[in-house]
Design goal:
The complex is a heterotrimer of chains A (321), B (234) and C (294). With 321 residues, chain A is mostly helical. Chain A has one domain. Chain A is built from 14 helices and four strands. In chain A, α2 runs antiparallel to α10, α2 packs across α12 and α7 runs antiparallel to α10. Chain B has two domains: 158 residues, P-loop containing nucleotide triphosphate hydrolases (Rossmann fold, 3-Layer(aba) Sandwich); 66 residues, no CATH class. Helix content of chain B is 39%, strand content 26%. Chain B is built from ten helices and ten strands. The longest helix of chain B is centred in the last third of the chain and has 16 residues. Chain B starts with a strand and ends with a helix. Chain C is mainly α. Chain C starts with a helix and ends in a 14-residue tail after the last helix. In chain C, α1 packs antiparallel against α8 and α10 packs antiparallel against α11. Chain C is globular. Chain C has eleven helices and two strands, in the order ααααββααααααα. Chain C has one domain: ABC transporter involved in vitamin B12 uptake, BtuC, CATH 1.10.3470. Classes of the chains: A mainly alpha (321), B alpha/beta (234), C mainly alpha (294). Chains A and C meet through α5, α11 and α13 of A and α4, α9 and α11 of C.
Amino acid sequence: MGHWNDWRKVLGYGILGAVILTAPFLFGTYLIFVFSVICVYILVALGMNILAGYTGMLSLGSQAFFGIGAYCAAVLSTRLVGFPFVIALLVGGLLSAVIGYLLGFSALRTSGVYLAIATIAFGMIMNEIFGEWSSLTGGQSGMVAPAPALGSIQFQSSTELYYLILFVSVVMLILFYNLISSNTGRAFIAIRESEISAQSYGISLVKHKTLAFAISAFYVGVAGGLYAYLMKYIAPIDFRLLVGIEFVVIVIVGGLGSIMGSIFGAIILFALPQIFAGLTYWQEMVTGLVLLLVILFLPDGLNGGLNQLMNLIRRHSDKRA
Amino acid sequence: MLKITNIEVYYGNIYALKSISLEVDQGNIVTVLGANGAGKSTLLKAISGLIFPVRGGIEFMQERINGISPHRIVRMGISHVPEGRELFPDLTVLENLMMGAYIKKKIKKIADDLDVIYGYFPILRERKSQIASSLSGGEQQMLAIGRGLMSNPRLLLLDEPSLGLAPRVVEGIYRIIRRINGEGATILLVEQNAKVALTIANYGYVFENGKVTVVGKSGELLQNEHVKKAYLGR
Amino acid sequence: MQLLIEIIQQVIFGTVTGCIYALVATCMVLIYKGTGILNFAQGEMVVFSTFISYTLRVVFLLPYWVVFPLSFVISWFFGMLLEALSFRRVIGKPHLNSLMACVAVGMILRNATGQIWTFDDLRMPPPFSDQVFTLPLGLVISPLFLGIISISFSIMIVFYLFLNRTRVGLSIRATAQNPTAAMLMGVPVSYVYSMCWAISASIGSIAGILIAPLLVLNVGMFIIILKAIVAAVLGGIESLPGAVLGGILLGILENLIGTFLPSWIRQIFVWVILLGVIIAIPQGLWGRKKQKRV
């Protein structure tokens, strides 16, 4: 009985993998663009999940790191033609990580609501800087992001961008999985459950909280760089508070503390505006309603809801058998 | 007056009361003894409505009260003085007492009742403008009991009034409890300190692990071998 | 000498806006003290009420002495409705839930306001004459300023008396400190929560009528909430007098900074203050240090 299930799982994943790898040949340009964007948001969700899902800290300022990563990629690729995109992404990610690490120190003395407010303040300050530092960032009107490059090779078409983003995403996903399974990952979870108990187990709050912020910022920063390459144009408005809120919405709706949850959330958050493409005026209302309904009725997000559903189905079919 | 029949109560996920039956007759002081975690506080919470039993019935003055919310049970004449006192820490002594009288409308009656309480606990009149959290342990207990009396309850539920207090203070409080009973209030008293509880109770129950193990008049309990060994230290 | 005049002028302006921050901050502190929820949707609630007031004044042409109390009452029920529909279910849950629930309600309200009325700007007629008078020393004042300051202070005084001198107010304070004990005293705690939201919405609606004529009335006005949060945190999020002082202090500081430093610094100044207070003096200027209970 079990064997059949395993075979079906492997087959399923295999087909999924094949589809993902050959997507550009199966779907049109626009859909490929959508997939690419979803990958970017999955990375964002992974980063957000480290904070909210695994360590239990709420940050409404992550859009700042998205922006740092984006501007780093855009500026480096513009000023230094042929600059390897991998380095540009890394610079964006690491710069974000450093700043995130510093922000993490504020998390030491605060928690819960206060932390959230502090991160909002941080995000607002960064957004203002993006707008004011015109010489670097092009000011309020933003700047163009050239195609990612590797020496003389340029990744221009949507297909090339897709594979590039896919590659980076897979690497980051693997890293994430390793992180969560490691001692550090377990320490994060311990802190979420109870800071005081975690401390009594010898887990250093200082080390782990700042580390969580740094890693989270890294992921969101790299995602930001990819975003810049994908959108080809960025401006401070792309990194405003509402964006930061949407980032949190992704992980809440998708389900906190799980990789699948991150993926769900990214798909939902991106799919929704597409469905309501003609109705930009309603976007905020729909996002708000989805968020509210999830919080009120599905505290574990869609992933949790799906798990409950799966359990119900499994129990029902077990009874039958 | 109070009749509890086979109630089963969960405290969170813990199966705290495993089919308890208990009766309190009007005018009596009934005590419930037992170690920590035996379920005594849970019993009082079930009566006052903070927790609902999953099975069984609680009747007060022949009316079924399980499943009714706490703010209505108070109006029926049951007042619960919780474990740890649960005062309003940043309100004054007077404000705490006024909260005790929340369900009463007539200002004159409230003022009269205040005088009665001050009669029992003169120190409260002295400290009436002081913040509750600044009072000593004994004074806080007195305030908690006084507050519980402001609603003129027919049945007073006292949860571990002696907890954390010096013996002299406990003696003083118990003297007042006896006086309150003398003036008409029926009392259900939960205590870890069996010795002092049995000095004023007419009747007693012993809880162990959520079940009643010994029942009887206080005189009988004092003679009971098991009770003597486990709770009276002899 | 000119500098001194300028400073005093800015203090005047700052006190006016500060009063409004203080009102909104009071609303937030009330809900926080009463229910433990930090109401991120306060700004949107204020804006929604203000649009209602706009309709009463401009469409139904009701005079302001009718609009003020009518708006107050409508917002009272509006607050109760919001609490019943959404916030009731997040009391006692982790912060993440209540915070995001507020954010969600805020988004829905903001969008709803735009859909029902408009996303464009509206001009709100001022409740007092906004004629400007120049005093001998070159100081500029207006009946509007005096009106705002006096109404704000009146509300805050009435609210203070309500909270501290009435039995209902006592029950709200008691419930905030110990809801379990309050239940045992016969307080219907869920009514108390409902009332906190109702009062908050009502006072917020007045704040909205006062500030809208100064700025432009539009959906984006909810930004004021963020400043009110700063005011509340500055004063100590559990302290009502702190909220008042924090609001006025913030208004004055904001204006003084804006006069002497480039405008973009003024923008981030508010956030820097917020970060600074949260990191260095988390209990606020008037609050008390909290101990973690194990």
